[in-house]
């Protein structure tokens, strides 16, 4: 549905849950074709952005997210660590850059950062930027002043996931609300940092929750620049250790729907790739995913080895996306059997 925005006087798409559900429920071949068509309008379909994660402060988190290995309330066997030294972070970032990552994402198991940690955090942002990489952080909730401090330090992205639909949220996390998450996203956006926000599939949610999560993201005052779609990595000792696995086709449908609803964002095929076949990942890329985490560890759990990803990229003819790479203006051709559908090369 098109609405006019009173602030900018421009028309923008505001999605209803029913419209989004119609997209999600289409026959799979129609959904994939639509998603790939939208994808080609805005991106080179053979380029995938590569981000590298580092846990700069692991475990001991006061929040009760029922999927997470790092919550102090679950017994996942993880030992908590203090905030990492800046020089160690920079050494790791340099290694990631040399292995092809263009964005460095630093994550801390905090409810929100403390004032005393800010100088160290700022030094990490400045140091990673000096290596020529894009910077991303995920540190929990931010107030307006903290967002401004990070923006002034030059932070490019802030990751803060809404995780699931508003109605399923309370079954997964009780120590902070869905509204708290949206408030941090608003503070981040107003400070000028680009928003990275998505969620997890496999938390016991239904199809409508998946669609509703995408509706919330797409209807933010500005859609996020990056949308990570994680597949739950079941962690022993957490309440979700025995959660039912996600149907791979439903996962692909969610990626495709995200691509169609947020055409210009980077849709990241995030946690859970070690449990995905090459074929499933290929379908996710065809559905419009164009970003991944590389390196054999995410924050605390496994990710595919570098060699496995290199083999996959070679098999699929995929290339890494460079920093600030933009799509050249596409040439529009029309398919013979259906003149309404543009094909872009
Ligand atoms: N503490 C910060 C926060 O929650 O905003 C940042 C770190 S937190 C680990 C980042 C995100 O990782 C979560 O929002 C969640 O979406 C994802 N995540 C955590 N554990 C996961 C798991 N076991 N499987 C899949 N995704 C997970
Ligand atoms: C996101 O959406 N996924 C990443 C990143 N943002 C910070 C984290 C995935 C964590 C997977 C579980 C772990 O490694 O502990
Ligand atoms: Fe803490 Fe983030 Fe894990 Fe929740 S997801 S327990 S906030 S580290």
Low-confidence stretches are 328-345
Radius of gyration: 19 Å
Largest sheet: 10 strands, parallel
Shape: globular
What proportion of the residues form beta strands (DSSP E)? 15-25%
Bound molecules: S-adenosylmethionine, 6-(5-methyl-2-OXO-imidazolidin-4-yl)-hexanoic acid, iron/sulfur cluster
Mean pLDDT over all positions: 91
Helices and strands: which structural class?
alpha/beta
Helix content estimate: 25-40%
Alpha carbon gap, first and last residue: 28 Å
Number of helices: 11
Total strands: the figure is: 14
| Element-by-element helix/strand order | EEHHEHEHEHEHHEEHEHEHEHEEE
Describe this structure in words.
By secondary structure, this protein is α/β, with parallel strands linked by helices. The protein contains eleven helices and 14 strands. The two termini are 28 Å apart. Iron/sulfur cluster binds next to loops. The site of S-adenosylmethionine has 17 residues, from loops.
